[in-house]
Every structure is written in C-alpha cells, then in structure tokens.
From TrEMBL:
Native source organism of the sequence: Aliidiomarina minuta
PANTHER family to which the protein is assigned, alphabetical: HEMK METHYLTRANSFERASE, MTRF1L RELEASE FACTOR GLUTAMINE METHYLTRANSFERASE
Protein known as: Release factor glutamine methyltransferase
Methyltransferase small domain residues: 111-198
Transmembrane segments: none
Record lineage: Bacteria, Pseudomonadati, Pseudomonadota, Gammaproteobacteria, Alteromonadales
Amino acid sequence: MNSNYQLVKAIQYARTQIAQGGSESALLDAQLLLQHILGCDRQWLYMHPEHPMTDTEWDSYRELVERRRKGEPIAYILGQREFWSLTLDVNATTLIPRPDTERLVEAALALDLPHTAKVLELGTGTGAIALALASERPEWQIDAVDYSAQAVQLAQGNGKRLKLPQVTVFQSDWFSEVKQTDYDLIISNPPYIAAEDMHLEQGDLRYEPHSALVAADKGFADLDHIISCSRGYLKAQSWVMVEHGFAQGAKVREIFTEKGYKKVNTLTDYANLDRVTYAQCSNPNG
C-alpha cells in the first residue's frame, strides 16, 4: 500500500481483516479505528471516501486493525466507550460498560427516591453507573467504590472530565471503607460469572479482568454478599438493585426473599432476558 491509499479502500481492507478475527461488527470497528487515527467523525468519512492516507496514518491504522483482528476489544484499543450518552475513558483494569447495564440505570431512575437521595454504587469500575445516574439526577449524593485502586483513579478521572462532582469515588472492598449507613439505594453490577463458564474464553471477556467477572459459588457469592450486607447501610424503605446473569434471576430473587427483603422484582434486558433484580428493605437492621 502507498500514501495515496483511499479511505474507502482502507475500510474495505480493515473490514475483511477484522471479520476474519470473528468480530460481528467488523465494518463499524473499521470505521471507528479510522476515525480514531484521523481524528474525524463518521460523517466526514462518508463525505471523503477518496481522501488519501499518509504513510504514517496507514501504518498506524494497520497496527490497530491487527490488534482488533486478534480479538482485543475495540474499547480498549480506542481507550473510550460511550455509555448513557457519556464518553468514558476505559482501560484493561476495568470491565467495558455494556448496553445491558443501562437497564440498571433506567430501573434506578424509575424508583420513587427522595429528591436528594443518597446512593452507593459497589464495584464502580469506570464509574459508568454512578456517573450516568448523576447526569440525570444532579441533586443525588452518590458514593462509588471499587476494590481496585486503578479503577478508582479511572472513575475519578471520568467524573472530573464529565464535571459531575456529586459523585465521590473511593477505594473499598465492598463495604469495608463505607461509613455512611443511611443510603436510599445501593446498586451494583458485581462479578456473577462462574469460574468454569466457557464464555470467559470468548470475545471481549478474554481480555477483561477476571476479578471483575468471576465469583465463587457458581457466580452467586458476591451477589449474596451484597444483598446480605446492604441491610446495615440502608434507611428504612430503601432499595438494593443488582445486575446478574440471564439464568440467575430466580436464585437472586430467592436470596433477596431469604434475607427479608420485600417487593422483589426482576427486569429483563433488551434481549428480554432476566438482567436486573431489586427489592426493598423495610427493616434494615431486622
């Protein structure tokens, strides 16, 4: 290839290479990588299909295409992912925010919470959930914690860049450093995949930190811990809401019920699969 390689041909080349690696969104991946290299938007690509690339641009593009062909997640290559219309910085120390987790945000926003609700997010990662909630409810006071110091730093950076100062991010092993005991909502997308799950060796999951994906007790250990311990950090009539696997809804409802929660309900994701379960704690210390 030479420095006169046109964008339309570059995209065709990249699409073929990326598709060979198994991506189901090869064309979109090719376009996003090229936008990243050129610093342009997709509309500009459409309007300038015959624009020639420089040697440097072409070499850089091929390097990114090869990384994607090998299976590296597009979000890690670009260093960003959009979630709830927010552009978040991401890296390999955290999970990549996914569209299904937006159902968790939708469900939280639909709750009848106080105007100045106090919210705790456990396992915040990039800060996606906490920052999405803050963008919609600027009056809420939101604490977001993560066990990983790198994740805390990343989430703090996202909050600062997005100018959402009502989100306070700090390091904590679940509740270990949480001092407040009067939250209106505790929300989490915790690890819920069983260690032996074959999906861990497929797609983006191969590159994401297993500590943020895998839980003991066939994927239920962290869910059980959060549901059990949340009672000591809630006001009366407050809520706990968790994301979980599509086959875990019945068991999560059972855990909530066994721990004395009321109004237990499960919501489906965009594929109509069980994804979010929440319940009310009427007697937190009971």
